[in-house]
Amino acid sequence: GDKAFAQFLTDEIKEEKKIQKHKALPKVSGGWELEVHGTEAKLVRKGAGEEEGRGGGITVTFNINNSIPPSADDEPQEGQKADEQEPDLTSTPNFVVEVIKDDTKQTLVLDCHYPEDEVGNEGEEESDIFTIREVSFQPTGESEWKDTNYTLNTDSLDWALYDHLMDFLADRGVDNTFADELIELSTALEHQEYIKFLEDLKSFVKCQ
C-alpha cells in the first residue's frame, strides 16, 4: 500500500509542478518587502504615506492556511478540457493591516477580508474587492494583543467613516490593486506549500 501511495504522490507532484504558475513568488508592486515564515507571510512598507522623516510604516500579515474557499472542488473531469481561464484554486486569506506612526505608542490594526460572494461579480459599480471587518488600537511592539482593547466591528458603522478608513488604507498602498496582487501572491505561496507538503508526505510514506 505504501509503495502505491508513494507512486501516486510522485505523479501528483509532477502534475502540480506542471501547473505551477510561478516558480518564484510574484512581487507586490509599490515597494513592499516580503517575509515568509512557513504559512505566514508579512508584507512591510516603511514610512508609507507619512511625511518625510516621520518614519512609521505599514505591515500586512496573512496566513495561507484555510485560505481557499470551500466551493473550489469541482475540477474538470478527465477528458474534459480545463478552460485556461478557469480560476484555479484561488487563495483569498484574511489579512491584517497594522499602521504605525512613530510618535504614538499605538498601532492601528485593521482586520480585512475578501467577501466570499464578491469574487467574480463584476459589472456593479467599482466595488472594493476586500472589506474591513474590525478595527482596533493595539500597543505598538506588543506581541500579545489585548482582548480588553475596544474593537470596532464595521457591520454597524457609519458608511462615511468606513469610506474614510478605506481611503486611509488606499493612501498607504492598500487598495484594490494591492488586494489583487495579494491574492496572486497568496495563491502562489499556497501552491508552493502544497507541493512541499506532498513531497514531505512522500518522504514520510517511503520511510521504513
From TrEMBL:
Listed Pfam families: MAM33
Positions of region (Disordered): 45-92
SUPFAM superfamilies xrefs: Mitochondrial glycoprotein MAM33-like (SSF54529)
Basic and acidic residues bias locations: 45-54
InterPro entries: MAM33, MAM33_sf
Ranges of Polar residues composition bias in the record: 60-69
Subcellular location: Cell membrane; Cytoplasm; Mitochondrion matrix; Nucleus, Nucleolus
UniProt main location, coarse: membrane
Keywords: Acetylation, Adaptive immunity, Apoptosis, Cell membrane, Complement pathway, Cytoplasm, DNA damage, Immunity, Innate immunity, Membrane, Mitochondrion, mRNA processing, mRNA splicing, Nucleus, Phosphoprotein, Secreted, Transcription, Transcription regulation, Transit peptide
GO molecular function ontology, one term from the record: transcription corepressor activity
Alphabetized Gene3D superfamilies for the sequence: Mitochondrial glycoprotein
Gene Ontology biological process terms in this record: apoptotic process; complement activation, classical pathway; cytosolic ribosome assembly; DNA damage response; innate immune response; mRNA processing; negative regulation of mRNA splicing, via spliceosome; regulation of complement activation
Membrane topology recorded in Swiss-Prot or TrEMBL: Peripheral membrane protein
GO CC, one annotated term: extracellular region
Sequence similarity: Belongs to the MAM33 family.
Name recorded for this polypeptide: Complement component 1 Q subcomponent-binding protein, mitochondrial
Species name: Nestor notabilis (Kea)
